[in-house]
Amino acid sequence: MVDLKGQYEGIKDQVNTSILDVIESTAFINGPQVHAFQKNLETYLNVKHVIPCANGTDALQIAMMGLGLKPGDEVITADFTFAATVEVIALLGLTPVLVDVEPDTFNIDVEAIKNAITENTKAIVPVHLFGQCANMDAIMEIAEVHNLFVIEDNAQAIGATYTSANGSKAKAGTIGHVSSTSFFPSKNLGCYGDGGAIFTNDDNLAHIIRGVVNHGMYERYHHDVVGVNSRLDSIQAAVLNAKLPNLDTYNNTRRDAARKYNAAFAKHTKIVTPKTVNGCGQICDTCDCHVFHQYTLKILDCDRDALVKHLGEQGIPCGVYYPIPLHKQKAYVDARYNEKDFAVTNQLIKEVISLPMHTELDDEQIEFITSTVIKFVNA
Question: At residue 282, does pLDDT exceed 70?
Fold first, then answer.
């Protein structure tokens, strides 16, 4: 699904030099590379505060801790996503409220959010799934009306640009009150281990979060808030610093691959290609609203699972993200949920399939992948 070795070959000298600098300095924790990466990412995102941490799941948990959410507070998020989003809600003793998603973008459904709000609702967590922002205009409006926090789960969309209805643009993860992201190796901006970060424009919240990530300390051995131990190590920061200048190029390469996939599948009614929104409505060289962390199709009137098996037999990796809705996972089953409220998610789990998407895809690979899919669905 990804070619990290191929990507590494293009930045080998920068990465190797950066890692050796860390080793020679022995500043393995909170070294200068971490601070440099923080500043560089703040500049790239045009956000006031980036707080690096150990991984994307920690980032989401720490964001919620920083907001002071209390056990029993309800947090609304999408049913169709990876479990980390709901996992941290439950770990903090908060009440997860799962809602359905849109059938074309796969992002959280705004009307479902409205219907789920109660007097106990305190936050919304929109997940920018597969590399494209949720409808942040509408979500921020809902949050303002109901006095709710918005925590963007930006683990899959770093570098994406959201275009508001008024024409203004902002990077994914800089619109809500706070955001989290992951630098897992397969992400668009990935390190060579685990890593994550929290973003915010709120000075006070940033101060709280900086204490939370470091055992609740602002001064050594003075624990002012309940914290955790979650730090981005210097070697991972060095890798990310080497990669960050290439992020836009990486994302453009992914968009180019998506455009070629789309063209190949365009005339096939059993294959539904990804929809891009937020002011552009199409994939083009200048469109930066979708960064294609995943390239996800819907397969209609065909056995999706049989296609997965067939692709594997042909040596083509693929993934089903996600095969089980969160509301049906044993850990998160809740008598409050009604199946009729998850009609879209329950359908998507039968239809979606993600094809290889990375910076090293070439035309020959794309032609082989697309022709194999087309032959199978038309058989």
Answer: no
How far are the Cα atoms of 80, 196, 226, 323, 348 from residue 342, in angstroms, in the given order?
Answer: 9, 30, 36, 14, 10
pLDDT tens track for 333-343: 999 999 999 99
Give me the domains of the chain, ranges plus CATH numbers.
4-245 (3.40.640.10), 247-377 (3.90.1150.10)
Average pLDDT of span 256-261 = 95
Sign of CA dihedral 321, 324, 325, 330: negative
For the cut 60, the answer to whether the pLDDT of residue 244 exceeds it is yes
Return the beta strands (E) in the chain as ranges. Answer: 49-53, 74-78, 95-99, 121-125, 149-153, 161-163, 169-171, 178-182, 196-200, 217-219, 222-223, 271-272, 295-299, 352-355
pTM of the predicted model as reported, rounded to 2 decimal places: 0.95
Q: Is 212 exposed, middle or buried (0-12, 13-18, 19+ CB in 10 A)?
A: buried
Which DSSP symbol is given to 325? -
